[in-house]
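Standup notes, protein team

Yesterday: finished cleaning the Chitinophaga rupis set.
Today: Transcriptional regulator, HxlR family structure.
Blockers: none.

Input for Transcriptional regulator, HxlR family:
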Amino acid sequence: MANTYERKIPLLDCGHEYIRKVLYGRWKIILLIYIADGISRPGELARNIPQASRRVLDSQLGQLLKHELISKKVFEGAVQHVEYQLTDLGRSLMLVIRIMGKWGNDHIEQLRKTVK
């Protein structure tokens, strides 16, 4: 008989919980920012985020695709390549991400003291 996992702490059914789940991942926000700024190919993204492994970036891009924040276009030809772009849903999130970034920059000195 298989054991089934039962969540001890129920998920909150609110917007904050969903956005947290969708954006959870070290590189997701920066991936969205780079894609919004026109860096759309996987290799370009990897070069711009050298601290992240390609496997992790591919995984997080896959999650952003699953959550319909980005779309993926495959170009056939002599050399096949892929480009990502924001969906309407992803574009609507960029305002929130940019505001959070501004808040972080406005309070960066205090945050540096408290975030380790």
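Follow-up from PR in the comments: Residues 88-106 form the longest helix (19 residues).
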